[in-house]
Design a protein that fits this description.
Protein name: Carboxymuconolactone decarboxylase family protein
Organism: Actinomadura violacea
InterPro entries: AhpD-like, CMD-like
Largest sheet: none
Order of helices and strands: HHHHHHHHH
Number of helices: 9
Oligomer: single chain
Length: 188
């Protein structure tokens, strides 16, 4: 049971409209439990939506790279909920194989290209120290421009924040999304 219960329908008109904006048009699922929980504080939720939507829909990083960073960040933070939502909604569309999705949890270095391995390493270093080693930064800078590097840092930080929020609230995985156990997600 989550520490703060999500809103349940029927929603007030303004909340219903706000929740529709969080979901893609024609979504097959009800608004995510996370979104319904955030709307216990609608002003905070509206401010968070701007950054989250901007990173997903208007970012400079390729979708595949974005999802590797998000999935690895969520896995390292032990956030099965957000990891599962991203794997279910974006993983296949971003071209991630089942082995690569698993590697975002286990830390297996095998399925990654040199560029992708640098992303995973950067996420691991950010998780461990809130910093990136000079050699990892140099590898990243060989593949990304300054604007993309800034976005990568904000993306990892944003999903660390989202993971922390979900974990602290003890939000259970969405029933339609895959999950993992926290023990599995200690790789690196």
């Amino acid at each position: 049971m989550a520490r703060i219960a999500p809103l349940d329908p029927p929603y007030a008109a303004e909340i219903g409209e706000a929740l529709r904006k969080w979901m893609p048009p024609g979504a097959a699922h009800e608004p995510l439990v996370l979104f319904r929980t955030l709307h216990r504080n609608p002003e905070l939720a509206s401010r968070m939506r701007v950054l989250g939507a901007g990173l997903l829909a208007h970012g400079r990083l390729p979708a595949r790279d974005r999802e590797i960073v998000i999935d690895r960040t969520c896995a390292r933070a032990g956030c099965s909920y957000e990891w599962g939502v991203h794997v279910a909604v974006f993983g296949e569309a971003a071209g991630l194989t089942a082995r690569q999705v698993e590697a975002t949890v286990t830390g297996d270095p095998e399925p990654w290209t040199e560029r992708e391995a640098a992303l995973v390493r950067a996420v691991d270093e950010l998780h461990e120290s809130a910093g990136i080693a000079p050699e990892t930064w140099a590898r990243l800078a060989g593949h990304y421009d300054e604007a993309e590097l800034l976005e990568l840092l904000v993306l990892a930080g944003w999903y660390r924040t989202i993971s922390q929020l979900i974990n602290a609230l003890e939000i259970a995985d969405e029933p339609w999304a895959p999950g993992f156990t926290r023990v599995e997600a200690t790789g690196g």
